[in-house]
C-alpha cells in the first residue's frame, strides 16, 4: 500500500498564531544526554564502535588550519582531502567528542575535547577579534567590504566556520566546558560585526552561498544570553529566498542543493521555539512536511547528487550513483526533534524512528566503523566507507556525531505546574535506561526491537510518584493491534489511534512494569513519483537484499577528492530482480513471506520473482547490509509488461552502461555540488532550468569553465548536451586549457525540440602529460555560450 501521508489535519491546524499560543503549555524537553544510557543492542554497539573510531583521528592535524590562520605554529599537517574546506571536520570532531563524552562518560573524549578548546582559544586570543576558523582572513575582509563576488569564490566560508560555532556550543552544552561558552559568544559577536556593514541586498546575495546552520547558532546564543542582538542576527541569516516561500506554504525546493536548505529550516525552528513567532513556525513545519511527505525515500533520506529533484526527475534515483546524502538526514533529525519539542505529535517520532533505524544506523560500517556519504537507491549498486585520517567529507563530520546521539530522543518530558502533571514520553523502542531525577525514577527499557515485537519498561524508584507516561502508538501499527499492559493487566487502548500517544496516568511505584506489543506488518511503498519502483517494509524497517560483491571499486575510500562516490561499474537494471505481478498480486505474495530459521527479520519469497535465479533472495533489514551490492527499490511489472518491454530496456541500458564505462569525468552544469567539485570559474554566466534540467550559459564576452579529470588518457572526446532548438546568437568557442578546440553555433543547428549530444575529439597534444584539463565555453560580445546541460570526457572506442 502507499505510505500514509505523515502530516495530519491536526498538524496543519497548529500552523496558526492561536496554535502557537496553545503550544506553550504542551512543549516537551529533552533529558540531558548523560541521563540516558544505551543498553546492549545495535545502537550501543554503534555508539561504542564510533568512540573507537574517533580516538583514531589525529587531533593536532584537525587543529592545524585554525592555528595556521591565526599565525601560530601548528603541531600537525593539515589534511589534504578537501583542502579548500579546511577546518570543517575539526568543528564536527569537537561536537562529536562532546556528544560521546555526554553519552558514555568516556574520559579520553573529555580530555581531547578540553584540549581542542584550549588550542582553539589560543587561536582566538591571537586573532584578537573573536574569530577562530580555518577560512583565511582575506575571505572575511572581502565580505566586510561588501565584495560578495570575491567572497563567493571561496568554498562556502560560512558553512565551514559554522562547524566551529556548533562545536564550541556543543562543548559547552554537552561537555560542560565553560571556556567553550565564552569562546562561542565571542565568535558570535565576531559574526555580527563582520556582517554589520552589509545592507539587505548584500546580505541576501551572501546567503545565496551555502552557510550551514548559522541562524541556528545565533538563536542558540540568544538562548544562552537573552541578548536580542543574537536573535536579530538569527533572523538576518534566515535567507528570504527560502523563508518567504516556506512561510507561505509554497514548495520551491526543486533543483536546490538539499543540505544547503535543511539547516536553514533548523534555524527557523529554533527561532520559533525561542520566540513563538508564527511565521518561523510555519516555515519550519512546512519545510519538514514537504521534505518528509513528498521528497524522502523509504529509509528516510532525500536528494540525489545532493539536490532535490523535480517530480519528473525522480527517476534519477533509480539511475544515479549518488543517492541520498547522510548529512541531509542528520539535519532532518535535528529539525524533527526541535519540532517535536514545540508540539509532541507522534508523526514526528514516526519519521525519526524510520530515519534513525534505517538511514543513520546503516551509514556506519559495523565492523570498522567507517562512514557513508551517499546511499544509492539504484538497484545493485553499493556504498563506500571512510577511513580515519584520510577522507574528510562533510558526511564524515556528521557521521562522527550521529552515533552518540541515539539516546537523545528515546525519551522526552514535560514539566507541569505540579509534579503530578508531568508527562514522560516514550518515543523510541530502544534498549536503554533513563534517570529522571525530578521523580527519583530509573526506568529500564528492555527490548531487541525490531527483531522482537515488544518492549518492557520497568520502574525503579525509592518513593512512589504520580505522573503520566505517554506511550507511542506508531503509525505502522493498525488500530486494534496495539496492546499495553501494566503489571500484567490490560490497559484500555480502544481510543488509541496510529501515530498518537496513549496516556497512562497513575501513581507509579518501584517494580511497576509496562509491556507494549509491537506487531509489524509487511507493506509496500512506491518511490516518490516513480510508482513502478517499490520498497518492502516490515513495520518501520526497510528490507533490502544483498546481490553480490563484484567490482566494489573504492569500497574503503582513500584521500581522493571524489572517493566518497561508489565509482564501480553500474549493473543493468533490466537484468536485476523484478517483482512481477499486479499491485494486488504483489501484496498477496508478500503476505506469504517465509521467515528464515534462526535469523530474525530475514525472509524469502520465491514466488515474488519470475527469474528463477532470484528465487532464494533473502530480505533483511537494510542496516545489516554492508560491503556488497544491494537492492532496496525493486522494479515492478505485470507479466505481460515484462515480456513486452524488457528487451528494449536491455538495448537502451546497454548503450547507457557502455557510455558510463567510457566516461573519465562528467559535470552537471547549474548544480551547486558538481560545479564546486569541478572548480567552476565564470564571468557573466548564469544558471537556470529548462525541461526539468539545470543549464548554464554565459553572454557578452562571458565564460564558464570546469576542471575535468583525464586519467592520463590522450584519446578523449568531449561530449556536450545541448537543447536542439536554440534561438539566434548562440555562437561560442570551446577551449581546452585556453586552446581553441572548436567553434560552435547552436542557432538553427538541429531545429528539434529535444536534447542533443555533440561530440568533439580532443587532439592528443592537448592532453599529453595531463591528469586534468580545464574545459571552457567562451562567448563573444552580443552572443551567448550554451546553454550547456551536461559535459562528459569520454574515452574513444
From TrEMBL:
Keywords from the named record: Signal
Domain (DUF4986): residue spans on this chain: 548-634
Domain Non-reducing end beta-L-arabinofuranosidase-like GH127 catalytic: 35-408
Domain Glycoside hydrolase GH146 substrate-binding span(s) in chain numbering: 658-794
Domain annotation Non-reducing end beta-L-arabinofuranosidase-like GH127 middle: ranges: 424-519
Signal peptide: 1-21
Region named Disordered: 670-691
One protein family per Pfam: Beta-AFase-like_GH127_cat
Protein name, UniProt field: Glycosyl hydrolase
Amino acid at each position: 500500500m502507499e505510505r500514509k501521508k505523515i502530516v495530519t489535519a491536526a498538524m496543519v491546524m497548529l500552523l496558526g498564531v492561536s496554535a502557537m499560543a496553545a503550544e506553550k503549555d504542551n512543549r516537551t524537553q529533552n533529558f540531558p544526554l548523560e541521563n540516558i544510557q544505551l543498553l546492549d543492542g545495535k545502537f550501543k554497539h554503534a555508539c561504542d564502535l564510533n568512540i573507537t573510531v574517533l580516538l583514531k583521528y589525529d587531533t593536532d592535524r584537525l587543529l592545524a588550519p585554525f592555528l595556521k590562520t591565526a599565525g601560530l605554529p601548528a603541531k600537525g599537517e593539515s589534511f589534504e582531502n578537501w583542502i579548500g574546506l579546511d577546518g570543517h571536520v575539526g568543528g564536527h570532531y569537537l561536537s562529536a567528542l562532546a556528544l560521546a563524552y555526554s553519552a558514555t562518560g568516556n574520559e579520553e573524549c573529555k580530555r581531547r575535547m578540553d584540549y581542542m578548546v584550549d588550542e582553539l582559544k589560543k587561536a582566538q586570543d591571537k586573532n584578537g577579534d573573536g574569530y577562530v576558523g580555518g577560512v583565511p582572513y582575506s575571505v572575511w575582509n572581502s565580505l566586510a567590504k561588501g565584495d560578495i563576488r570575491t567572497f563567493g569564490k571561496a568554498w562556502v566560508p560560512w558553512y565551514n566556520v559554522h562547524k566551529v560555532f556548533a562545536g564550541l556550543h556543543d562543548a559547552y552544552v554537552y561537555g560542560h566546558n565553560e571556556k567553550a561558552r565564552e569562546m562561542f559568544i565571542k565568535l558570535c559577536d565576531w559574526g555580527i560585526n563582520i556582517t554589520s556593514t552589509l545592507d539587505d541586498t548584500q546580505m541576501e546575495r551572501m546567503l545565496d552561498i551555502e552557510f550551514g546552520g548559522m541562524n541556528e547558532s545565533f538563536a542558540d546564543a540568544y538562548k544562552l544570553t537573552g541578548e536580542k542582538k543574537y536573535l536579530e542576527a538569527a533572523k538576518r541569516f534566515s535567507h528570504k529566498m527560502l523563508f518567504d516561500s516556506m512561510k507561505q506554504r509554497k514548495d520551491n525546493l526543486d533543483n536546490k542543493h538539499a543540505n544547503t536548505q535543511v539547516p536553514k529550516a533548523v534555524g527557523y525552528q529554533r527561532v520559533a521555539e525561542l520566540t513563538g513567532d508564527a511565521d518561523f513556525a510555519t516555515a519550519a513545519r512546512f519545510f519538514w512536511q514537504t521534505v518528509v511527505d513528498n521528497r524522502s525515500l523509504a529509509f528516510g533520506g532525500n536528494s540525489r547528487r545532493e539536490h532535490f529533484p523535480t517530480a519528473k526527475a525522480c527517476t534519477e534515483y533509480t539511475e544515479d550513483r549518488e543517492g541520498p546524502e547522510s548529512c541531509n538526514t542528520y539535519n532532518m533529525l535535528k529539525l524533527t526533534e526541535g519540532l517535536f519539542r514545540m508540539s509532541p505529535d507522534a508523526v514526528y517520532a514516526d519519521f525519526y524512528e524510520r530515519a534513525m533505524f534505517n538511514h543513520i544506523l546503516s551509514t556506519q560500517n559495523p565492523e570498522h566503523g567507517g562512514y557513508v556519504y551517499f546511499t544509492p537507491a539504484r538497484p545493485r549498486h553499493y556504498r563506500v566507507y571512510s577511513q580515519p585520517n584520510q577522507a574528510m567529507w562533510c558526511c564524515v563530520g556528521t557521521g562522527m556525531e550521529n552515533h552518540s546521539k541515539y539516546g537523545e530522543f528515546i525519551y522526552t518530558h514535560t514539566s507541569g505546574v505540579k509534579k503530578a502533571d508531568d508527562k514522560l514520553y516514550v518515543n523510541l523502542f530502544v534498549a536503554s535506561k533513563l534517570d529522571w531525577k525530578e521523580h527519583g525514577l530509573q526506568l529500564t527499557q528492555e527490548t531487541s526491537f525490531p527483531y522482537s515485537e515488544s518492549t518492557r519498561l520497568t520502574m525503579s524508584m525509592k518513593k512512589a510518584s504520580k505522573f503520566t507516561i505517554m506511550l507511542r502508538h506508531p503509525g505502522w501499527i493498525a488500530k486494534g493491534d496495539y496492546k499495553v499492559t501494566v503489571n500484567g493487566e490490560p490497559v484500555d487502548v480502544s481510543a488509541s489511534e496510529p501515530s498518537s500517544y496513549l496516556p497512562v496516568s497513575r501513581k507509579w511505584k518501584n517494580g511497576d512494569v509496562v509491556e507494549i506489543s509491537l506487531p509489524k506488518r509487511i507493506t509496500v511503498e512506491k518511490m516518490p513519483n516513480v510508482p513502478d519502483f517499490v520498497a518492502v517494509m516490515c513495520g518501520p524497517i526497510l528490507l533490502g537484499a544483498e546481490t553480490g560483491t563484484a567490482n566494489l571499486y573504492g569500497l574503503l575510500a582513500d584521500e581522493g577528492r571524489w572517493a566518497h562516490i561508489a565509482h564501480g561499474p553500474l549493473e543493468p537494471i533490466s537484468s536485476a530482480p523484478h517483482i512481477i505481478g499486479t499491485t494486488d498480486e504483489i501484496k498477496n505474495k508478500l503476505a506469504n513471506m517465509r521467515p528464515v530459521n534462526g535469523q530474525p527479520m530475514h525472509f524469502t519469497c520465491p514466488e515474488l520473482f519470475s527469474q528463477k535465479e532470484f528465487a532464494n533472495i533473502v530480505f533483511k533489514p537494510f542496516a545489516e547490509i554492508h560491503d556488497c551490492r544491494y537492492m532496496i527499490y525493486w522494479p515492478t511489472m505485470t507479466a505481460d509488461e515484462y515480456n513486452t518491454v524488457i528487451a528494449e530496456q536491455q538495448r537502451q541500458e546497454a548503450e547507457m552502461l557502455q557510455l558510463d564505462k567510457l566516461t573519465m569525468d562528467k559535470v552537471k552544469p547549474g548544480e551547486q555540488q558538481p560545479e564546486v567539485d569541478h572548480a567552476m570559474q565564470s564571468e557573466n554566466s548564469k544558471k537556470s532550468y529548462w525541461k526539468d534540467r539545470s543549464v548554464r550559459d554565459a553572454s557578452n564576452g562571458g565564460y564558464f569553465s570546469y576542471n575535468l579529470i583525464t586519467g592520463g588518457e590522450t584519446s578523449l572526446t568531449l561530449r556536450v548536451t545541448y537543447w536542439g532548438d536554440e534561438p539566434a546568437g548562440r555562437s561560442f568557442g570551446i577551449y581546452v586549457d585556453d586552446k581553441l578546440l572548436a567553434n560552435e553555433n547552436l542557432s538553427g543547428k538541429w531545429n528539434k525540440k529535444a536534447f542533443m549530444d555533440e561530440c568533439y575529439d580532443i587532439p592528443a597534444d592537448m592532453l599529453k602529460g595531463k591528469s586534468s584539463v580545464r574545459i571552457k565555453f567562451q562567448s563573444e560580445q552580443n552572443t551567448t555560450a550554451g546553454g550547456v546541460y551536461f559535459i562528459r570526457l569520454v574515452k574513444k572506442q
